[in-house]
User: Fold this.
Amino acid sequence: MSEDHIKISRDGAVLEIRFNRPEKKNAITNAMYGAMADAIIEAESNDDIRVVLFTSVGDFFSAGNDIKDFAAQSAGAFDGPRHVGRFLEEMIKAEKPVVAAVQGHAVGVGTTMLFQCDLVYVAEDARLTVPFIDLGVVPENASSMTMVDRLGHTRAFALFGLGEPLLGKDAAAWGLANAALPSGEVQPRARAAAQALASKPAQSMRHTKKLMRDREALMARMREEGEIFAERLRSPEAAAAFSKFLQR
Ligand code: COA
Assistant:
């Protein structure tokens, strides 16, 4: 990875993880998952860090998993450790609050990771999609549970099954996001919220977050999805979807 594809910075007690691959709509490679997992581990173990904030450069929050990586995994041509599972697990395990600023569109894990965050600010014109079925795979990141819990079955199914986008204003109205804002206001609002969280009693914050989330259930669902996802990745349906995208 170009080290710059994930930018890590600190502002006081807030650790900011920034997607910085705008030329590929912030699609996430294996190495980028690794850098994000490491950053969350560092945030959890460092008492000087109290909040994690996700932001991005450009007009996309993230176009999701890099399809070239998917295609290589599908063809059994992917060597070395895979970091996506580590990233998803660290997000679920995180005891410190996580805030996201979504000032553009999001696809796949770019959307499902928002359901693991504690505060989410989206652009009014954001489009959040989860095209797992179109790609021949299945929902990941416990989203078959979190999206149903948060949005209700039929709304979640329209997103998964029909590939309909969740628009920014609906994300706020339906309980995914705290607010839908003009795009230029999203990051300042999220940064202010992150700083406000960082100023509160840290241990009370940690206990409250733990009490509010059933981490065991999230982890169990994420692993159950992961097994089916891995099988589906090697399916002819998935291989056809990846090669269609790559040959556009
Ligand atoms: N993986 C790898 N590359 C991606 C990518 C992804 N998930 N999403 C976008 N890119 C690349 C494109 O291949 C293109 O690269 P190029 O300029 O070298 O050709 C560049 O990013 C710009 O994308 P483009 O498709 O031209 O932009 P767009 O605004 O027309 O469309 C998307 C943006 C996100 C709607 C479209 O790129 C897309 O559908 N991407 C796939 C999203 C996806 O299915 N992700 C997996 C979810 S599980």
